[in-house]
Amino acid sequence: MSSEKFENLEDDFSTSIDRLRPVIEGITNQTGEQRKNAVRQAEKKVEEANFIMQEMENEAKIAPTQYRTQMLGRLRTYRKNLDQLNKDLKRKTEVGFYQAENYGFDRDERLEASQRNRLVQGTQSLNRASESIARSHQIAAETDQLHDTDDNLGKSRKILKTMAMRVMTNKMILIVVILLELGILGLIVYFRFIRK
């Protein structure tokens, strides 16, 4: 990989995900204030993972072309994992909403959690759009490189044709000069030896 920062962010992301999974899984086993705290903690860890993911995307955008594709592929995998964990969190949180009286959630807390979920979903949508734009920029840059290469090939063809024409012209001139020399040599031999 070309970017040490990208690799460090990957490690941070993996650590963040590893800490998030048990928190999400433990939500269903908790009630009341513990459950609310676990949900908040999980949402905070999702936001942290999203922030790290955004930093990784920024690093991938400025990476050299030969590494960028590999980085973006890994980011897509990480994005799927984070989206899946976010869906699990949302599902377990919604179960809590349906059983709000049992778990101590009041209306304001449900609205706040719902707004957080929408915010996280909006952030994820923006991240996916940013990733798509980065891919489009990459494709445009590669297309420009191909266009430049094509232009260079066209110039090279013109230069080669010009060189080939000059070589042919030089050969024709050499043939004419050789024929003239042979003619002159023939005349000299004729007048000097044969005509005597």
TrEMBL record:
Compartmental location: Membrane
Gene3D superfamilies given in the database record: 1.20.5.110, t-snare proteins
Coiled-coil positions: 39-95
Database matches in InterPro entries: SNARE (IPR010989), v-SNARE_N_sf (IPR038407), Vesicle_trsprt_v-SNARE_N (IPR007705)
Span of domain Vesicle transport v-SNARE N-terminal: 1-93
Pfam families in alphabetical order: V-SNARE (PF05008)
Top-level taxonomic group: Eukaryota
SUPFAM superfamilies recorded: t-snare proteins (SSF47661)
Record keywords: Coiled coil, Membrane, Protein transport, Transmembrane, Transmembrane helix, Transport
Keyword Plastid on entry: no
Transmembrane segments: 172-193
Recorded topology in the membrane: Single-pass type IV membrane protein
Annotated family: Belongs to the VTI1 family.
Name of protein: VTI1B-like protein
Source organism (scientific name): Mya arenaria
